[in-house]
Amino acid sequence: MKILFVNVVKNQHIQKLYYPLSFGYLVSFSRKNGLELDCVYNEDLSSLKRFSPDVVAFSCITENFNLCKKYAFQVKQFNPKTKVLLGGVHVSAVPESLTKDFDVGILGEGEQTFYELAKNNFEPNSKINGLYFNGQKTSDRSLIEPLDFIPHPDRSIYPLGTRNSYIFTSRGCSYSCKFCSSSRFWKKVRFHSPEYVAEELLQLKSSGVKHVNIYDDSFLISLDRVKAICNLVKDYGLTYSVAARANQISDEALFVLKDMGVKIVGMGLESNSAKILQWLQKGNTPEDNQNAVDLLHKHGMPFSASFIRDTPVETEEDLKVTYDFIRRNHVSFDMYGLMAYPNTPLYTGSQDWDACRIRLYNQRSKRVKWLASWAYHRVSDVFHVKEDF
Asked: Which fold has domain 164-380?
């Protein structure tokens, strides 16, 4: 059975900085369980006629769902017998948004569900957990544990060496920020072992990669684990970008990150107004923000930060406090408009998917381009991990 994997993206640079590891995980997980897939990866339908797939598996974020619906319609026009699947953060949050052109939605963590569906020739039934079809959900899919049971993603399905490299060393977030769906999608935090992480990084090094973005929601959530990873990989000669929360930045953490080869830290500070941070349920304070920035400057660690504006309780004074903090501390930053995404407390049921376009107010430096892409893919790429099918 031939499968066309399609990551639905618009023709925007920020959406094409990385290949989604979601499909790579599906392929490697299926192979580990004895199922080889004849598959092709695309970001549009350019291979549809030439490949003539039996199955088209889409992954998309909310802002691209209207384009995904258009693609699904075109697939059915080309061949009504082709099975059309959709996985990822959007369909997991609002499966009822699927049109008649979608045969199946894969909800939540996708590897085991996709494998069982593939074994059944992509014919859904009520015995396969984690599906949405014929307007009904099957039982929830349990999370895969231990996380190391999922093999490293098969990157061979993507064009070689044409985009930035990244990995996930964990899935989930221990915080529940009001604007983010990650903790609600993943339910809990699970970690890959340091040995698993080291093995994947060695594979990337062997393929010629020099720099790796670590796309965890918060890499420093367990400093002991980071120390163990550092001890295994610090001699690889790779450099890294990582994301961290302000309240996890410490002298000890920065010593470890520098020893590992980390060259930049990204933080989602969101605001420097205590009122706004509390409203966002961020879980840290302006004092945490200042302490983190002071320590990063002290250790000479380059960093960038993202912020959010347009909360309903925001005043000019709140914005002034935040911009004063940015200027006073010489912060490379980007500023996003607050969005009410599905599966967050802010969501009110709107189905104006185009209105979910990420709004970037400004981008002040080249350094912050990495953070912008991290913040973007963090909310968009939840299909396999934060981001995947």
From this structure: TIM Barrel (3.20.20)
Per-residue tokens: 10: 């618009």
> Which residues face 370 on adjacent strands?
none
Rounded average pLDDT over 208-232: 96
Domain boundaries, the chain: 2-137, 164-380
> Which amino acid belongs to residue 26?
L
CATH fold for the domain made of 2-137: Rossmann fold (3.40.50)
Please indicate, yes or no, whether the overall pTM of this predicted structure exceeds 0.90: yes
CA distance 33 to 36: 9
In this structure, of 136-145, 157-166, 291-300, the range with the lowest mean pLDDT score is 157-166
Name the more confident of 149 and 183: 149
Residue 163 near residue 18 (C-beta atoms within 8 A): yes
Cα separations in angstroms, 132 against 54, 85, 332: 19, 10, 43
Mean predicted confidence (pLDDT) in 41-45: 96
Tokens of 226: 């980071």
Say whether pLDDT at 379 is over 70: no
Is residue 44 classed exposed, middle or buried when 0-12, 13-18 and 19+ CB atoms within 10 A define those classes?
Answer: middle
Calpha distance 160→11 (Å, rounded): 20
